Amino acid sequence: MEGSTGGFRVVSRRAVRPESASSPDVVPSEAPRIMQLTPWDLQYISVHYIQMGVLLPKKIQATAGSSALADELASSFARALGRFYPLAGRFVVTEMSGACLTVSLCSNNDGAEFVHAVAPEVSVSDVTTPRYFPPVLRSFFPWNGMLCGDAMLEPRPVVAAQVAELADGMFVALSLNHAAADGTTFWHLFNTWSEIHRSGGHGCELSMPPPVLGRWFPDTCPVPVTLPFRNVEDIVRRVEVPPHYMGSAVARGVAKCTVAHVLRDKGLGCEAWLLTQVVASFDEAKMRDALASWHQKPHILYPEASGDGDRDPADIVVASSTRFDVYGNSPEALARLTVDREFMEVVDMA
Questions:
Q1: Residue 190: closest CA among 78, 114, 80
Q2: Is rRNA-binding tagged as a keyword (predicted)?
Q3: % of the chain at pLDDT higher than 70
Q4: Given this model, what pLDDT does residue 309 score?
Q5: Distance CA 277, CA 284 (A)
Q6: Which of 40, 85, 110, 274 has the lowest tally of Cβ within 10 angstroms?
């Protein structure tokens, strides 16, 4: 694969609206519904969209003038949205008296975004073979860097799909605003879309159940939930560190498990997975709050390997970063390391 983009380019973008049908679990024809957000929903205003996808190793003839596959996928996506029609709406922010606001989801049928892209120089093996993160993979998702609150600052889609045709396969990705739904709903929508597309027609009976659209609130919770902020800008926070910043911008994460679990049951691969989860759970808003209040109760890190300090003798510390420019960030250099038998015998213990 030449370069880091693999010839990636966006062919088209379109708004996909829920397809109407006679079934009671699909988009209604009456005026837009207002769906109030629960405390569960609102806590995710300042986190990123949920972004996941599937790689399908199937030979696809991708040409600039051929969009039949994208059209078919967009059509089945519209039918899937028929069941999940609130996700085709937009967030509405209402300012209240007393410097407060509420956030709701309006089912106004503005639609989801559907992106058709091609990466003719990228093969399935370019994605699955490397031990490092392929740079082109980031471009396979439609809402990179987007925070959930960005869809409240201005009208943006709550959900977006992207289909990228590769040299010998395709990558189908979905991005979902975490303030609108969680990972369970994400895969419920994704699998519904998949089943509708595989069925190849309208009016088919699906094995996937329809979603339960009513939101659950605790009995003592006011509806709508009022947030003590003047505007959404006061809620959405980003840790902005300029390029080539000289200073410490490091956060510590902790994952725990027993020695027996590592040596007898799962191996180091399980520990790597736990650390991955810690990294994925990083919360920028909490980190900013912790830094702002650090001076009130300073916490100093000490290197002593004792139970009285910050480290226990049984701790394993993983430091440094794959982003560091050790080998010029060269994929070719990293690839040579992975085929170095002597090197891999030392590091590949999982």
A1: 80
A2: no
A3: 76
A4: 47
A5: 15
A6: 40
Long-range contacts of 303-306 (CB under 8 A, 24+ apart): none
One-letter identity of residue 46? S
CATH of region 9-233: 3.30.559.10
pLDDT at 307: 45
Place of tokens 């956030």: 103
Sheet with 112-119: list strands edge to edge.
9-16, 112-119, 159-166, 170-176, 50-56
Distance of CA 220 to the CA centre of its chain: 32
The single-letter code of the amino acid at 156 is R
What are 177's two structure tokens?
A: 């605003």
Query: Contact at 8 Å (CB) between 15 and 110?
Result: yes
DSSP secondary structure string, 31-58? SPEEEEPPHHHHTTTTSBPEEEEEEE--
Instruction: Report in angstroms the alpha-carbon separations of 124 from 70, 101, 345.
Output: 19, 47, 26
Does pLDDT of 107 surpass 60? yes
Question: What DSSP string runs through 205-261?
Answer: PPSSPPP--SPP--TT--SSPPBS-SSGGGT-------TT--S-----------HHI
Determine if residue 144 is left, alpha or beta; phi over 0 gives left, psi from -120 to 50 gives alpha, anything else beta: beta
Residue 274 — very low, low, confident or very high, per pLDDT cuts 50/70/90?
confident
The owner of tokens 């093996």 is: 125
Two structure tokens written together for 159: 């959900």
Domain boundaries, the chain: 9-233, 244-347
